[in-house]
Amino acid sequence: MGGYNIGELKTVKRKSISLEDWQGFEEILDSANFWNIESDIPKPPDGDGSSWLIEGYKNGIYHLIERASPDEKEDIFKIGKFMIKLSKIKVMEGHMY
């Protein structure tokens, strides 16, 4: 339906992943230096886009990073893309932004 207001979560799905996939995910987090990425970098709205928010909790430490329509070169995009791949959610080419 579109719009710019925060919507409601419609579906919650949980998925188990293999140890190999988990280790791959940890490698991406480590290579991105996830636990030290600045939490929020303001980006002026350009009229359209998406909000990416990734949270983590490890050894008693909570961290989140949020970006508005991250660039494909940004680490949050790489982390999110890997998570989408693991989820097996189908995203049309050019619709991940």
Describe the structure.
The protein is α+β, with helices and mostly antiparallel strands and 97 residues long. The protein is 28% helix and 16% strand. The protein has a two-stranded antiparallel ribbon with strand order 1-2. α1 runs antiparallel to α2. The radius of gyration is 14 Å and the shape is globular. It starts with 18 loop residues before the first helix and ends in a 10-residue tail after the last helix. The mean pLDDT is 84.
Quickly describe the structure:
This protein is an alpha+beta fold.
How do the strands of the widest beta sheet line up side by side? 1-2
Q: pLDDT under 50 segments (min length 5)? A: none
- Largest pleated sheet: 2 strands, antiparallel
Number of helices, where a helix is a run of at least 4 consecutive DSSP H or I residues: 2
Radius of gyration: 14 Å
Class by alpha and beta content: alpha+beta
End-to-end Cα distance = 18 Å
What would the principal axes of the Cα set say about the shape?
Answer: globular
Query: Roughly what is the average pLDDT, rounded to an integer?
Result: 84
Counting copies of identical and different chains, the oligomeric state is single chain
Share of helix, binned:
25-40%
Number of strands: 2
Strand content: 15-25%
Query: SSE string, helix = H, strand = E?
Result: HEEH
